[in-house]
From TrEMBL:
Pfam families tied to this protein: Fer2, Fer2_2, HMGL-like
Residue segments, region Disordered: 20-55, 570-604
GO terms, molecular function: 2 iron, 2 sulfur cluster binding; metal ion binding; oxidoreductase activity
Protein name per its UniProtKB record: 2-isopropylmalate synthase
Boundaries of every Pyruvate carboxyltransferase domain copy: 73-338
Stretches with biased composition (Gly residues): 32-50
Length: 604
């Protein structure tokens, strides 16, 4: 037996250099890229670094890996052990675990971890129940169980195997990185003795033994060599190499596996099999698992949905799917994989992400032809469920303009007033706002859609003569009532004085607020022919203007009031550009039917 020779006080660079010299490599190879392994006293600074696997440089130099598709590899499902160590801390009912066990068998999982019986009574009971289920249901699953490198833990697995009548492989783990040794105060002698005792306990129980070197990718090669030798001499059938912190790239995987193969060959244990167990901290767990498979490890590990410690493990369903596509395993139908995901999510109290490539709701809908990842607006409109339409009528009031010389089209001296209008029948969904009905059903786009939430007043219209915010009024509230919009104000040649004065005095710039201003002012002048400046301001206080400022607007309303009262004839009557252009007619059902007919004819 090779005993501890690693000098804990020697920096990792020195250890790597020694390793390089031994293997004849130009540069240090082995295990552990730059990581968080504790450096011993005497090493530079206080930083921590691991030892061993050298990563490719920032610029990618040193990669040069040749990908070979994996030939054949077995899959170990760690959901019921590592998966349960995720942050949710859920230990599901045994029924959920058993359902998942069957789903594992259905997707061709080869081996399953039935847990860590040493973790407590409930874990022991569940591990035994799972073993009994595998046996009684004749599931084609090899049972494995985790144990600390402690004889008592291994003996617990032996008892579970005896009780269930099912052989269980012992996966006995020991921390192998410098930081773990530092934290635990371990030395190599202690670790070697622990491995010897654990392996002996497995031997006594006639169970196969696997040494799991936790954090292998950040361990020192000299430490690994000693631990591996202890395992080999203890009768281990396999070694499990772990990227516990999700640390390496495929390059590191290749270096590590090459190192381990060399070491076990040197020990005369070429037949020793290897497992690969990885975490997802860098998002590389699936690629590294595939690389490990390509490099010939016999088993790769994963968990349902990749759920596990911290950010999780290799996603098992994706691993199975990808290995199937690479020809290393039989293809598994997606429905089975999706069922496995669903049962895994249930057991782990986990939510399947909507974009999960196999079981996500978006993916499934895409596959089932229901809906694409992105729904185009027109598709959404086509697919929108039919909404019941409610018939209603709007009475669009038409107003008269002021005659330039003391009379208007209605024959009222100086006054603009209601002179008729049109009744429009339409049908709207119950949730349609009056603003939407005016703009999008009747094409009365003079009423502006500003904030659409009652802040700006741009949508102001008159309902039975009272100003309302059309964006906050349901269309059905206007059923059978008189509606006035900016289009109902009189146009040329008897222009409504308000329109005239806003134009004359520069009461609008961009004009976006102007329709709302005009309607608020119309309501004011209809009820108060002689408003004060203060009353005008108060009447317009709900209408925001972002560019003109309010002085010109107030002056325009004041002048319009005077014109309407016949007190400012001399200021009115100037020909305006476009004064002889009559505005378009208000909508009516007859005109709408005509328009639709014309459109149809043009389309055909
Ligand atoms: S759009 Fe109605 S208040 Fe702004
Ligand atoms: S004129 Fe532009 S917002 Fe009032």
């Amino acid at each position: 037996m090779e005993r501890a020779t690693y000098d804990w006080n020697r920096g990792d660079e020195a250890a790597c250099a020694a390793e390089s010299a031994r293997t004849g490599e130009a540069e240090a190879r082995g295990t552990g890229a730059r990581g968080t392994g504790v450096r011993g006293a005497g090493a530079r600074g206080t930083g921590v670094r691991g030892a061993g696997v050298r990563e490719a440089g920032e610029n990618g130099e040193g990669w040069g890996l040749a990908w070979r598709p994996p030939q054949s590899v077995r899959v170990v499902d760690e959901t019921l052990r590592d998966g349960l160590q995720n942050a949710s801390g859920v230990n599901p009912p045994i029924g959920h675990k058993i359902d998942l066990l069957h789903a594992m068998a259905a997707i061709g999982v080869d081996a399953v971890s039935v847990g860590l019986p040493g973790a407590g009574v409930r874990h022991t009971e569940h591990s035994r129940a799972l073993c009994r289920e595998i046996r009684s249901a004749r599931l084609p699953l090899l049972a494995t169980a985790a144990a600390r490198t402690v004889a008592a833990d291994v003996e617990g697995i032996v008892r579970a195997a005896d009780e269930s009548g099912l052989p269980i492989e012992v996966y006995s783990f020991i921390g192998s990185s410098p930081i773990r040794h530092f934290a635990e105060g371990w030395d190599l002698d202690f670790m070697v003795r622990a491995i010897e005792r654990a392996a002996a306990a497995a031997r006594r129980g006639n169970l196969k033994f696997c040494l799991v070197t936790e954090d292998t990718t950040r361990a020192h090669p000299e430490v690994l060599r000693v631990l591996f030798r202890a395992a080999v001499e203890g009768g281990a059938e396999r070694l499990c190499l772990c990227d516990t912190t999700g640390h390496v790239t495929p390059y590191g995987v290749a270096e590590l596996i090459a190192f381990v193969r060399r070491e076990v060959a040197a020990m005369g244990a070429e037949g020793l099999q290897l497992d690969w167990h990885a975490h997802h901290d860098r998002g590389l767990s699936l690629p590294t698992a595939l690389w490990a498979a390509s490099l010939g490890v016999e088993r790769v590990h994963g968990t349902a949905l990749g759920v596990g410690e911290r950010v999780g493990n290799t996603c098992l369903e994706l691993l199975v799917d990808n290995l199937g596509r690479l020809g290393a395993r039989p293809r598994v139908p997606r429905e089975r994989l999706a069922e496995y995901c669903a049962l895994g999510a249930r057991a782990l109290s986990w939510v399947i992400p909507p974009d999960h490539p196999i079981a996500g709701v978006r993916y499934r809908q895409e596959q089932e032809g229901d809906r694409g990842y992105r729904v185009l607006a027109e598709e959404a409109a086509e697919e929108a469920p039919e909404e019941a339409l409610v018939p209603m009528t709007l009475h669009l009031v038409e107003r008269s303009g002021a005659a330039r010389s003391g009379g208007n089209a209605a024959g009222q001296a100086g006054q603009a007033g209601q002179v008729g209008g049109s009744r429009v029948a339409l049908a709207v969904p119950a949730r349609r706002t009056l603003l939407e009905a005016l703009r999008y059903d009747l094409d009365l786009v003079g009423t502006k859609q500003g904030c659409d939430k009652g802040d700006c007043g741009a949508c102001t219209v008159l309902l039975d003569g009272v100003p309302v915010l059309a964006c906050l009024t349901l269309a059905l509230e206007a059923d059978g009532r008189a509606v006035q919009t900016v289009e109902t104000l009189a146009g040329a040649p008897h222009l409504d004085p308000l329109l005239d004065c806003f134009d004359r005095l520069g009461g609008g710039q961009c004009g976006f607020c102007t329709p709302g201003m005009l309607m608020s002012a119309t309501a004011l002048l209809d009820r108060n022919q002689r408003p004060s400046r203060e009353e005008i301001k108060r009447a317009l206080s709900g209408n925001l203007c972002r560019c003109t400022g309010y002085t010109k607007i107030i002056e325009a309303v004041d002048l319009a009031a005077r014109i309407k009262r016949g007190e400012a004839d001399e200021e009115a009557g100037v020909d305006l550009p476009g004064a002889d252009c009559a505005p378009p007619p208000l909508p009516s059902n007859a005109s709408r039917a005509r328009k639709e007919r014309t459109e149809k004819e043009q389309a055909s």
